[in-house]
Amino acid sequence: MTELFDRNMFNRLYFEWFQAVYEKDPQLAIELDIHVIPRLGKKMAQKIKDNLPGDKLTIDYLFEALKLSHWFQEDVKLVQKKNDYMVLQTEGCGFQTNWIKKFNEVLYCPASHERFLEEFCKEINPNSKIENLVGPKENPKDNIYCAWKISI
Questions:
Q1: Structure letter (DSSP) for residue 140
Q2: 111 φ, ψ to 5°?
Q3: CB 95 within 8 A of CB 11
Q4: How many Å apart are CA 18 and CA 88, to the nearest integer?
Q5: Which of 8, 148, 4, 152 is closest to 78 using CA atoms?
Q6: Which class would CATH give 7-151?
Q7: Helix 26-51 crosses helix 7-24 at what angle (to 10 degrees)?
Q8: Mean pLDDT per 10-residue run, the chain (152 residues)?
Q9: pTM of this prediction?
Q10: How far apart are CA 137 and CA 131, in angstroms?
């Protein structure tokens, strides 16, 4: 399946937008992010669902759909998959790495990512559940910035 939108361009623009707002008002940037990103997840899932054939009730379909989202980048790895759940983790998160270089701090992004994943996955399969297993760390020993369990 061809790319439904240019996720690299989206992520670069999103980083620039978020950074600009954050520099003016960090709390506002986080509030906007938490408000906008879940809506984006739902809309993105709708578009993907309309264009991706397959059994929408399976974990395999959910995985294939997530791979087409802006959230799933080269640093996201599938580390475990069973019939009713999968575990994804982000290694060497590009967003966090750039953020730490720019602001010398970790941005706590699970608040918006969890909501993004919830809205995205529920749009694909209403029975899906999201669990944050690992959140961002300043100096992760194992280079894992976040891990998510997604079940149906």
A1: -
A2: -60, -45
A3: yes
A4: 24
A5: 148
A6: alpha beta
A7: 160
A8: 68 84 90 88 93 95 94 89 96 79 76 87 96 77 84 96
A9: 0.84
A10: 17
